[in-house]
Amino acid sequence: MQGRAPEPLAAAHWVDEQQCRGCHAGAVKDWQGSHHQLAMQPANPQTVLADFEASPLHNDVETTRFLRKGDEFWVNTPGPDGRPADFKVAYTFGVEPLQQYLVELSGGRLQALGAAWDVEKQAWFHLYPDQGVDHRDPLHWSGAQQNANFMCIECHTTGFERRFDSDSNRFASHWQALGVGCQSCHGPASNHLLWTREPQRADLRNSGLVVNLRDGGNRSEVETCARCHSRRSPLGDGYHAERPLFDDYLPVALGAGLYEVDGKIQDEVFEYGSFTQSRMYAAGVRCSDCHNAHSGALRLSGNAVCTQCHNPAGQAPRVEIRTDKLLAKQYDSPEHHRHPQGSAGAQCTSCHMPGRYYMGNDLRHDHSFSVPNPAQAVALGHGDACLGCHRETEGQQVARQFQDWFGQPAPRDGGFARALQQARTGKTGAAQALYAQLARTDLPALRKAALLAEVPRYPGPAAGQVVATALQHPEAVVRLAAIDVLVAMASPQQQVQALAPLLGDGRRAVRLAATWQLAQLPTELRQGLPRWPAALTEYEQAQRSQLDRAEALTNLAMLYQHTGRPEQVEAHLRLALQRNSHFHPARLLLAQWLEGQGKRNQALQLLQDSSATYPQEASLQHALGLALVRAGQRDTALEALVQAQQLASDNASYAYVLAVALHDAGQQEAAQQLLQQQLANDPANRAVRIALVGYLQAAGQAQEAARLLDELQAVNPYDPLLRTGR
């Protein structure tokens, strides 16, 4: 008699991780005491490292006092209303080099204090010193930008869900366990435990794990780590361990201000973006080749972690790592690094992983594994390991010494950094360099995406094919960049034709981006697209899963405006401002909506009141100026537009609009001067150049206009403008 067939395998769910200890004692031992285990803990005398009997911490605009009440820890600091009050510390965040603290506000909100504890110096410090951060600032600890339910806790717990109820404006956030545990990386373990009891079951192959990080290439492991070790935006509430990264998150691109022009970290972007640009990643190296995945510590000490592969034999410890470009050489010697053995300069990380400090005292190493190039760094203005260590020496001298040691080798990035800098700054030959780089087949995806972002400023016959090819690129980040470029360059009909296939893309982030762009096109162009109803539903659900955020509510309002649901627009914009009163895009859209509904006086009043409340916010002054222009109040409008441009002098759009307003007001010379100044600051700005050429030609200054067109010829000989001269 045959045994009864097993029940169909259910979806995996979270379990108590105490059950992991019996079989995985070694991994658990490594994990105990690690930063992962101690990432978030209840605040008590055993977990709180700070001195809550210390003197008050005075910032430029606020004072925080620390209180100990038995086994409880409190702070007295200005709250959401700006008035000092007592707040109880609920949880600790991290253990070193700093420890932060979460306090609970109404509605289940956990907020990260601006005061943090320096573990090494044993002292309190402020994360935003002398920046005027009070309760009216978006960075204040009580505001939406410091809400840990959305911003932080997911990466400090296991199995976290925000669980926000929009009707009551409350969080009922839930986690399976505090700290980053086994299931954070391997996924819910219920079926794995079932396999331990029924190992013969065919439907439990691969041990019943949702994520098996040992098999296959390095992408699965790197993307698993990237859920937290990247700067990214969530696409929903929580993640699905079995899905690719771009199904649950949208990592940032290599934008200016976030990354150096050569791809090294600049702002706080964590490790994913730099590592996936590296030759290490391309060769198959994964995070756990260098780090013990359970303790987080390096597998070996000092340079030994690098000489696992970079050794005289040119051999890697894993056969999955490509070694075709691995040079057999003695790297851990003065002949290579040119520094005394044992010195800081002799460490591989000093030269190939220069670090930056974030959050006051947290040193993080760049993971692109770059090669120092002080000459290029001086020329392009990016950071460099040699220049960073030898700050007391003039840059050109450092570059000469480097050349004496190592000669003048070709750039290891194949000219990427120089081409990107040319494109961003409008240097001679920018277009040729840009398209030559985009033709490469060996560029890391993030770098190709960064170059694609510059294409709209360099139109020409090759642009269309470049974008069409990028829309079919195997990497999601490139397809996403191509969508943005397509919208800037193609007609609505061309956009529909190109974007319709992406509604069925294999990555959710791409589907959502394509859906949003199509939603903004005329309704008749979308009719008949077979995937459109499902895509629209998916986009709306993604936003509705984040109703705690003003950004998502604003996205919904715009979606409803474009898809024929006007009755929901104003309510969602006003709700966005309730969620975050500092989120100015919602305020600007609300003013536009009111004006479009025939409520011009209400729109003007909103913008005037907002500009008075936030006098340093350039976007409000700019919007007020445009609204006053439409209302026929040109003199007052000009004052607001001038104020906006002065507050954000590097914003080319504000300068462009102000120049048009000045020209229309009869101040032609002032308009030309403003455009000339803006073009000098941003020579790659095509719109500013075109406007200035037109004004100069109209004023009879044909020679100066011709000079600007000659400059454009040198920057982009393919520009269609050159065919007409206008």
Automatic annotation (TrEMBL):
What positions does the domain Cytochrome c-552/4 occupy? 146-187
Origin superkingdom: Bacteria
Keyword Signal listed? The answer is yes
**What keywords appear on the UniProt entry?**
Signal
Instruction: Identify the SUPFAM superfamilies for this entry.
Output: Multiheme cytochromes, TPR-like
- Which SMART domains does the protein's record reference? TPR
Outline the extent of the Doubled CXXCH motif domain: 284-313
Protein name (Swiss-Prot/TrEMBL): Tetratricopeptide repeat protein
